[in-house]
Amino acid sequence: MLGPVESFELLKKYGIPFPKTAFCDDLGGVLESAASMKFPVVLKVSSREETHKTEKGLVQLGIHNLDELSLAFTRLQHKAEHFKVDSFILQEQKRGVEFIIGGQNDAVFGDSVLFGLGGIYAELFNDVSVRVCPLTRKDAESMIEATKARVFFEDGFRGKKASKKQVVHLLMKTSLLLAKEPVVSLDFNPVIADENGASVVDARVVLR
Amino acid sequence: MSLGAFFKPKSVAVIGASSKLRSVGYGVLRNLVTGGVFQSKYAKPFNGEVYAVNPNADKVLGRHAFNSVLGIPGEVDLAVVCVPSEVVPKVTRECSKKGVKACIIISAGFAEAGNKELQAEVLKAAGRMRVLGPNTLGVIAPSSSMNASFGLTTPAPGSIAFLTQSGAIADSVIDWAIEEEYAFSAIVSLGNAADVALPELIEHFVRDRQTKVICCYVEGIRDGKAFLNALRNAKRRGKAVVVLKAGRSASGKKAVSTHTGSVAGSHKVFEGALEQGSAISVDNLNDLFLFAKALDFCPKPKSNGFVVVSNAGGVAVLLSDYCEKYGVKLVELKESTLRKLDRTRKMHPAYSRRNPLDLVGDATPERYEAALKVLLRAPYVAGLFVAQTLQTMTDPAKNAEIIVEAKKRGKPILTVFLGGKYSRDSMLYLNGHRIADFNDPERAVKAAAALLKFAGKK
């Protein structure tokens, strides 16, 4: 499995957008990196082993200034003692609708891409769609339409809307990445999209 | 080599033909010679040569028994092998040597029983000869009057090709098909699919002129890309493919370390491939054949705009609900259409004057006829649901005749003759005249949705 640094490098290679991200070892590094970022930011731990980081309290959201950032770092460092943590990730915080994009090498069909609502809902309701690679634009569009998440791309829901064009673009880039790299599985979760863009906030990639 | 010899052979040899009642070798020979061990009006003797091969008998079912396929004087296009598994490599080698084009291996005891080496040995022995099976029920090709299987009998000849990975399901489907008047170009049991597998069979029936709809019962496939290609070819050639996938829960076997794997199970990939190949996915055997019937009998709707015609308000309401649920649109009736309906002077004063068109409970065949004529002439009406419930004033036989006549206007008509014993004859009459009756409002609407999907209008 790729670590977070390599995962984001892979995203960069394929032109897959992600928020401004910095990997830091200590408070000094965090504060220094924050200088070139737009608040609010997110501070989270970087770990190959820990999943469900939000549930474990390993993600600090909505940090609006340097004071809050120092406080968040201390809190996270304290928490991190109980888990296997490699370093810290500082990231500009994206707002929008959360989706999940996955990739898997299927034994019968080869590479496939998955799309669904992010967070716990895709899993809870099994409301995801999958298509075999390579994806055409039509395939990518039909993946969105096949899930309940489609409302966010049409009229929106409770004021939240997402750009279909941008998510379709992301799905097709994912298909391209799968075609070129020896991926066993990948997991972009969450992908956060609004009316103007879509970016991969967290990525886990397993190579052969 | 092409698969033609499996479906239109000039001569067939049954290897392991037997006089022993209830043996496979008896069933296969009897099916070839008579069309079916069970009586059916569609069961006809195979009109080519049938040879019996059995080294331990002089005669089988009154015909000469050859020692080996090599002893047969004429050419053999198709061999049906029903000997014990350990003898299969030997007889397969003989068939290959004889120049047999296609070989159906009914015998079991190969990969499905863990004997992968024996199966590989058979494939090697076959050489260039094509092999269906082993562990198959066989092939039934009603249009060539050929029942080269141990399936109970032959159903009607028609335009549905049924490809199944379960032979036993084929049996039940035949039994059912004869009752429900489903008509087949072929029924093929794939068995272990050691050589001939599902994608190649789909490709064959895509090119087969008789076949309009390809129904598949699938448990698992090996070559996903070839399968998807076959589906895309079907779409290009205007053939509908309907697929029932079984064994969905086994999808969990390929658990992967990431989170996605926990929801992505390979059934989702299969479903995605069906979508990409424009195939129609169904959840049960009933839908598999209901959709096949609709796709076989109905012309493609030109748009998503149906009208409900009913003599029962309740059925009309249900049909409307299901239309909304399955994405079938009910068009609004234009003022000009209503005027034409009024002018027929056949409508009840209290008829609904809107879609769904409720003709009122005392609707006579004349009223149905008038409504159907007006509606089918309206260019904006793509197709009809015609519902009927039995009341003392209802004439189901006459109504069925009117619908058969109305079909000539070239638009899809799906009927719901809702009932049982007293509606049954009319339902069968409708099905017999290639009008798809569903005897249930929800099924009719689901079938219409499948038609729209196939026509690319949904």
Describe this protein's structure.
Chain A is of the alpha+beta class. Chain A has two domains: 20-92, ATP-grasp fold, A domain (Dna Ligase, domain 1, 2-Layer Sandwich), CATH 3.30.1490; 97-207, 2-Layer Sandwich (D-amino Acid Aminotransferase, Chain A, domain 1), CATH 3.30.470.20. Helix content of chain A is 31%, strand content 30%. Chain A has helices spanning 4-13, 27-34, 66-80, 121-125, 137-145, 164-180; strands at 21-24, 41-46, 59-63, 87-92, 97-106, 110-117, 128-132, 183-193, 198-200, 203-207. In chain A, the strands form two sheets. In chain A, strands 5, 6, 7, 8, 9 and 10 form a six-stranded antiparallel beta sheet that branches. Chain A has a four-stranded antiparallel beta sheet with strand order 1-4-2-3, with helices on one face. In chain A, a hairpin with a 3-residue loop joins strand 5 and strand 6 (110-117). In chain A, helix 2 runs antiparallel to helix 3 (66-80) and helix 5 (137-145) crosses helix 6. The longest helix of chain A has 17 residues, at 164-180. The mean pLDDT of chain A is 91. With 458 residues, chain B is of the alpha/beta class. Chain B has a domain at 299-454: Succinyl-CoA synthetase domains (Rossmann fold). Chain B has a seven-stranded mixed beta sheet, sandwiched between helices. Chain B has a seven-stranded mixed beta sheet with strand order 9-8-11-10-12-13-14, sandwiched between helices. A five-stranded parallel beta sheet of chain B has the order 16-15-17-18-19, sandwiched between helices. In chain B, helix 11 packs parallel to helix 16 (441-454). The radius of gyration of chain B is 25 Å and the shape is elongated. Classes of the chains: A alpha+beta (208), B alpha/beta (458).
Summarize the structure.
The complex is a heterodimer of chains A (about 210) and B (about 450). In chain A, about 30% of the residues lie in helices and about 30% in strands. Chain A has about 210 residues and is α+β, with helices and mostly antiparallel strands.
